[in-house]
Amino acid sequence: MGIIALEGIEFFAYHGVYAEEQRIGNRYQIDISVTTDFSDAAENDKLSDTVNYGDLYEIIAGVMKIKAKLLEHIAQLIISSVRQRYPNVEAVEVSVSKFNPPIGGVCTRAKVTLKG
User: Fold this and answer.
1) Number of structural domains, the chain?
2) Which of 28, 49, 58, 87 has its CA 20 to 30 A from that of 67?
């Protein structure tokens, strides 16, 4: 078993509970780690024997285009999409961060992490 991860992927998207958030948008950061058996890829040097992190990026980019109210929902959509593309992975962990969340005070970012 091993872990394939992408860290610090950034998007500008239109998520949020409040209408203003969905209208003006915000910056988001995604971190993902996928636990899987890539021993064949390590041995044979074949991309087809592992999880392609280019695919992971494309999955995340597609999900970020879908408007959502909650960070938790975004994380679940990413996990479901990764599992659909790679059904044999052991685990997927996703963190979704929103920069400068509208909480009425100073906060660099709000973050949720979901494992599935």
Assistant:
1) 1
2) 87
51 close to 38: Cβ distance less than 8 angstroms: yes
Known catalytic residue at 111: no
Strands of the chain (E only): list them. 2-13, 26-36, 91-99, 109-115
**Domain containing 56: what range?**
2-115
Per-residue tokens: 62: 């597609």
Reported as a single tens digit per residue, the pLDDT across 13-38 is 999 999 999 999 999 999 999 999 99
**3-class SS of residue 59:** helix
Q: Decide if 63 contacts 14 (C-beta within 8 A).
A: no
pTM, full prediction:
0.95
Q: Which of 65, 67, 69, 98 is catalytic?
A: 98
